[in-house]
Recover the amino acids of this structure.
């Protein structure tokens, strides 16, 4: 419960996301706008799911702890489904807006490609999701207190931070795969995205047994990362060329000598 | 009084279109002049002969540029709005002075700590009504003063209110920050700091200064004003005032007889910029001193003489009576000493082809860049909403974040509408509506859900 815990957990949770934002999104105003719009869509989905949960809690028996826990689990599942629904509706909205923009400007190229939009919207969802999950916890970590004094896990802060990082990156990968699947009308891929989101959320029910929730979440994240990479056009060959600085197109585009 | 002043001219959003400011050489008029010059060069006909064709091509270029630069304008406004909100939220969270109950303003006389809920509601409605009527009266007063050209009174009013904000409120703010962090400070150093801060602020806002410094000062005074509102407005009154003022904003800017619309139209008719002390502009305004009309007329012949003229005689005859201050015997004397000097077409073209020194006041790197303007009142009320959310919400940071995103999305939508309708629009209604909806929804619905999830460490 010190500033080092605060800074450590903040950087663990938001480090990759903020670096991605600074290096790839911050320079382009259009991407920033779509990122914030993605965050807004996630927020609206959360609002609707909390509304349903709240109503369910009000009409249920508030004394019964197991009923409340059951309602919470129901709330989590509903929230996941609503998030994916809103991801789909954001995709539809972006398609329609892009078509409108193209018709209006009479240019051949869209100002922003659907792949960039997938990445940016996924990251927007991730930012908002991560922020809502972890910011209050981080604020509490600055104040006085002892972790786990009543017998709870002592790794609460660190595990929250790692889980948040996984969730943010997962949202980004889900965004890329989802939009790509919608573009190519591969509905089985969409179903797999929804199911993997449900899997990661339901694994968190195993907390505080972090081995059961964190490790599978990271495995899912790596798998989804590789899938997103290949659906965005990457391959082993591309990766090798990029890492050994021999990718001619990339070098040309960035005006760097080989 | 200072509060009302900042309230008065706030809710407008206008874009400096060269079509309406043809004689202003800021914000893209350079490009427009070059286009006109090329047209004249090609045909040798006076520009009035082909108005429709030029208008069409201008409209197409307008559309393309609007789309291309629309996103840039949104970000140019996102950054200062975000900065202002960050300053306000950081102050609220750290300096406890602004969340303490130390009484109320005289504009909101009814207290809110009453026994019954009904009494509290009634008191807050009365408070909001009084505040809104004060704002309406002040706005009408300002419009009347502007219409009857009482510029000195308006200037005096603005100067007194900026003095109050820059010296007195920032002195209090600095004092409270020192108290919070237990920093000792002597009065001499404090006087030096406040004096320098205030004087540089007055110069930057009311006269000339580097663009970023002026923008920074405008953000700071908006934040100070918002903090005052957050401290002295009780809760229900604050939310009610926010709701009512966005309705008022809608009415005042869009109705044909609305005061703010009349103000904007009068300013456009007279080709003057609206007071720089009340508007945040993302690019430099060319004419900084609005009351100096001599400077304006003297600039006109200077500008016209740089465009290449294919027909010297007719266009020169329109400028005949205005000799720019050069009397005839001055010219005779100059011709005696320096020989006969008269610019002909070739010499003018040669001068035109030389790299011309840009007038120093234009600081935008891109000559095609047009600025967007947002009233300071909009900054203030956005920050009041987010600040109140962070001060009073039990959901803490979630509510603050939700309101922040809602306000930014509202601003984005407003700018989208601005790009479509191309006239001054109220910036408050959409953002404040989203902000209020998200505040109440997040505080009452999302907070218990997220609290339960965090307790069990479930992730969604």
């Amino acid at each position: 419960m010190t500033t080092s815990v605060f800074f450590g957990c903040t950087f663990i949770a938001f480090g990759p996301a903020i670096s991605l934002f600074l290096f790839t999104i911050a320079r382009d105003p259009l991407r920033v706008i779509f990122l914030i719009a993605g965050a807004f869509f996630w927020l609206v989905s959360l609002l609707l799911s909390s509304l349903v949960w709240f109503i369910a809690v009000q009409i249920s028996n508030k004394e019964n702890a197991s009923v409340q826990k059951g309602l919470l689990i129901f709330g989590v599942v509903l929230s996941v489904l609503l998030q994916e629904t809103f991801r789909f509706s954001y995709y539809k909205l972006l398609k329609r807006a892009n078509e409108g923009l193209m018709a209006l400007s009479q240019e051949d190229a869209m100002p922003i490609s659907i792949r960039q939009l997938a990445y940016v919207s996924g990251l927007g969802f991730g930012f908002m999701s991560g922020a809502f999950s972890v910011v209050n916890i981080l604020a509490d970590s600055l104040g006085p207190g002892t972790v786990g004094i009543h017998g709870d896990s002592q790794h609460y802060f660190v595990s929250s931070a790692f889980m948040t990082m996984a969730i943010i990156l997962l949202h980004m990968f889900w965004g890329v795969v989802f939009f790509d699947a919608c573009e190519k009308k591969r509905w089985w891929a969409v179903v797999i995205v929804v199911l993997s989101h449900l899997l990661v959320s339901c694994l968190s029910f195993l907390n505080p047994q972090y081995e059961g929730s964190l490790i599978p979440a990271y495995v899912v994240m790596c798998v989804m990362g590789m899938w997103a990479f290949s659906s965005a056009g990457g391959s082993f060959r591309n990766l090798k060329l990029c890492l050994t600085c021999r990718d001619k197109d990339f070098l040309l585009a960035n005006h760097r000598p080989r | 009084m200072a509060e009302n002043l900042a309230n008065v001219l706030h809710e407008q959003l206008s874009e400096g279109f060269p079509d309406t400011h043809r004689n202003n050489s800021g914000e893209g008029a350079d490009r427009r002049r070059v286009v006109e010059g090329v047209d004249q060069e090609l045909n040798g006909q006076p520009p009035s002969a082909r108005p429709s064709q030029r208008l069409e091509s201008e409209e197409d270029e307008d559309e393309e540029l609007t789309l291309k630069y629309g996103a840039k304008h949104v970000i140019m406004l996102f950054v200062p709005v975000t900065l202002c909100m960050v300053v306000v939220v950081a102050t609220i969270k750290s300096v406890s002075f602004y969340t303490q109950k130390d009484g109320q303003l005289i504009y909101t006389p009814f207290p809110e700590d009453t026994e019954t809920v009904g009494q509290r509601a009634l008191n807050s409605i009365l408070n909001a009504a009084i505040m809104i009527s004060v704002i309406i009266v002040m706005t009408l007063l300002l419009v009347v003063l502007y219409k009857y050209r009482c510029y000195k009174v308006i200037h005096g009013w603005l100067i007194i209110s900026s003095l109050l904000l820059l010296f007195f409120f920032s002195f209090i703010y600095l004092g409270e920050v020192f108290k919070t962090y237990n920093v000792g400070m002597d009065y001499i150093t404090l006087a030096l700091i406040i004096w320098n801060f205030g004087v540089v602020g007055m110069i930057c806002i009311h006269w000339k200064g580097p663009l970023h410094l002026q923008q920074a000062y405008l953000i700071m005074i908006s934040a100070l004003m918002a903090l005052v509102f957050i401290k002295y407005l009780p809760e229900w009154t604050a939310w009610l005032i926010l709701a009512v003022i966005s309705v008022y904003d809608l009415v005042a800017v869009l109705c044909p007889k609305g005061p703010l619309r009349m103000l904007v139209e009068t300013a456009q008719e007279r080709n003057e910029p609206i007071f720089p002390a009340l508007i945040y502009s993302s690019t430099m305004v060319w004419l900084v001193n609005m009351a100096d009309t001599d400077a304006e007329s003297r600039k006109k012949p200077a500008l016209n003489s740089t465009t290449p003229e294919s027909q010297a005689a007719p266009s020169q005859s329109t400028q005949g009576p205005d000799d720019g201050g050069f009397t005839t015997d001055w010219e005779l004397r100059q011709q005696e000493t320096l020989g006969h000097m008269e610019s002909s077409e070739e010499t003018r073209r040669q001068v035109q082809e030389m790299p011309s020194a840009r007038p120093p006041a234009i600081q935008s790197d891109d000559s095609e860049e047009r600025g967007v303007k947002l009233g300071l009142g909009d900054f203030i009320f956005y920050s009041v909403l987010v600040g109140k959310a962070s001060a009073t919400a039990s959901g803490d940071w979630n509510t603050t974040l939700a309101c922040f995103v809602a306000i930014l999305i509202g601003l984005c939508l407003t700018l989208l509408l601005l790009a479509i309708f191309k006239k001054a629009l109220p910036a408050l209604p959409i953002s404040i509506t989203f902000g209020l909806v998200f505040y109440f929804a997040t505080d009452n619905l999302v907070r218990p859900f997220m609290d339960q999830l965090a307790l069990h460490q479930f992730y969604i």
